[in-house]
Amino acid sequence: MSHIQRSIPFPPIRLERLVKYLVEAAQRSPLPLEEARERGLDIGRGDITRFFKRLGLIEVVDGRITPTQAAYELLSLYNLLGNAVFHVVFYSALIQYKLLYDIVREKGEAGLDELRDELNRRMREISPSTWVNDVAFKSLVSFGVDVGAFKRRGRSLQYAGNPISKAIAAAFGGAAIGGSAYVPDIPEWLAHCARRVMPTGVMAVDESCAAKAVEDRLISLIKIRP
């Protein structure tokens, strides 16, 4: 597995494999571990299963995988917002992803080598013996690209904006402008993040408030495990 030494292990795969695992685990619950391997849902020594257990998204009892309430909530939001919802999970649960996202956002665009060096510098500030290996760094980059946080430009990464804000605008048929998503209507759970703009009548959704609303819905259910 890719890993941050002395930190959270995560599988070196693309996001679509993680989504497929959760979807099939939910559809076939309780899913036997052996069947998950036979269907090609897991890799290595159960790396994806261990990753999702670490995030509190599944339980494994008597050799069977059962998604938690948090997993069903995540999949519900995924159906609405797409890959962007995993940005919230990664940003909240994986310190290495959070730091990389913050660095790219601050710089706007930077080379991969520069970003890896800066990420490791910040990791060492947290713990002198902690660092990101090359395989782990590539996985973090692919996660960021897959959720829409980054764009690859050759050997550089470019900040692509807040994934949740863009996803909300796309989901509700609006546009993201100047830190807000302008949409015709919104669900009740986002009402406190919005104001109606006259004379058009569209709803302006504050991106930071909306991102926090999505995060709160997930993190209240996700329990990070040692």
Report on the structure:
The protein has 10 helices and 12 strands. It is of the alpha+beta class and 226 residues long. The chain folds into 3 domains: 8-75, Arc Repressor Mutant, subunit A (Orthogonal Bundle), CATH 1.10.10; 83-159, Orthogonal Bundle (Arc Repressor Mutant, subunit A), CATH 1.10.10.10; 163-211, no CATH class. It is globular, with a radius of gyration of 18 Å.
CATH topology call of the largest domain: Arc Repressor Mutant, subunit A
- Biggest sheet strand order reads 9-10-12-11
Average pLDDT taken over every residue: 83
User: Main β-sheet, in a few words?
Assistant: 4 strands, antiparallel
Number of strands: 12
**By CATH's scheme, which homologous superfamily of the largest domain applies?**
Winged helix-like DNA-binding domain superfamily/Winged helix DNA-binding domain
The number of helical segments is 10
Q: Tell me the CATH architecture of the largest domain.
A: Orthogonal Bundle
**Which shape, going by the Cα principal axes?**
globular
Strand percentage lies at: 15-25%
**Class inferred from helices and paired strands:** alpha+beta
Nearest-angstrom radius of gyration? 18 Å
Overall tally of structural domains: 3
Query: Which class of the largest domain in CATH terms?
Result: Mainly Alpha
